[in-house]
Protein: 5-methylthioadenosine/S-adenosylhomocysteine deaminase
Amino acid sequence: MKILIKNIAEIYSSDSKVKKNQFILIEDQIIKKIDSMAKIDQIKDYDHLIDAQDKIVLPGFINTHTHVAMTMMRGYADDMPLDRWLQDKIWPFESKINSDDIYWGTALGLIEMIESGTTAFSDMYFSMDRVADLVEKSGLRACLAEGLIEVNDGQKGFDKALDFALNYNQRAEGRISTMLAPHAPYTCGKDYLQKIKRAAQEHDLGVHIHLSESKKEVNDFLNKYQKSPVKYLDDFNFFDNHILAAHCVHLEPGDLEILKKNNIQVAHNPISNGKLANGIAPISDYLKNNINVSIGTDGVSSNNNLDMLEEAKMASYLQKIKYEDPTAMDTQTILEILTINGATALNLDNLALIKPGYKADLQLIDIKKDSFFYPHHNNLSNLFYAAKASSVETVIVNGKIIMEDRELKTLDKEKIYYEAEKRSLAISKQIK
Ligand SMILES: N[C@@H](CCSC[C@H]1O[C@@H](n2cnc3c(=O)[nH]cnc32)[C@H](O)[C@@H]1O)C(=O)O
Ligand SMILES: [Zn+2]
Structure:
């Protein structure tokens, strides 16, 4: 399948300056050629033509930390601190969820991701085989991991998670990759974490974990072990693997050096950290120290959506506030954090740049339809600081169009809305 995208107003990719008036040729899963419209006559052979007049093209956004099925809990538990939110609301709800519920809750989240220009995500949840079915069907790219909480999951859960990680890696034409995911150092003991670490090393799998999210978590570790969660994990070499660490909000002296030394991949979730009042992560310091930072939305229940544009604007403005420095996170940095840094975080090669030889995961954004794109001084600024995700018009993943002119090509919206609504409300009724 060859797709030709012509008349592109501008292409933004973090490896180069903005390119104007271009075409892109996609062949099968790969970006084959990018050139100026003056040379379009050279391209005679293609199956599908997209006219990108008045549109800009960017790599798809990569959401590096989420629990997609938690979309079912949108608006179910608000305005609470992390420990109470988990223990009083979220975990009781999750104890009633079956794998069909996860399927439909995830489907609801996938619609939102596609419609807001996300082409890849990293999910930590349960019933991952069902999530994988949806990744396959939707056409999205995902890094999937069964989340493990030791008291609930134990050895059996570990075996299942490892089995999943080994069996599903590279499925769906390579769109699915896998990791192991101990939930957090406060929900998994040292022996359990060591077992997971050794399995990850043996099978060359990355490890996805929540880390130093709340002040309480850090204080509990300081009281119990006289060291921070970061130091605690480092002391038994937990960080030897590729580590995707969500949050990293609260650091003790010496922690940043540990993150840097171990090449920890920080997934920053500013809206979740705001909603649960966990604080503002020291992202500027991470960036200055060349620690790779990407962005996650976390689950909808702590957000309450999956919109990466909103997340990025919040990330940037919070850093400006925290450091009283308007340059703390500029538009170029936002572009990197939303795209190429996400690919690095998920250990995926040849992804997230608009460049020949790279996977064709990209989005077309209309810059003439909505008032917030006017005037056109700087479209990247307009996109990150002014626009809404409804300007995302067409989404391509792995060379396949999954949304065109805002029409979803792979998912049945009506059916998904119906099932997700029915199941979510039925579960909340069981709890009351
Ligand atoms: N197998 C586990 C599920 C782990 S999935 C990942 C878990 O992370 C939880 N979670 C979601 N957001 C956050 C957060 O911000 N901090 C900590 N945990 C979270 C989520 O509710 C889910 O229970 C079990 O049987 O409970
Ligand atoms: Zn999370």
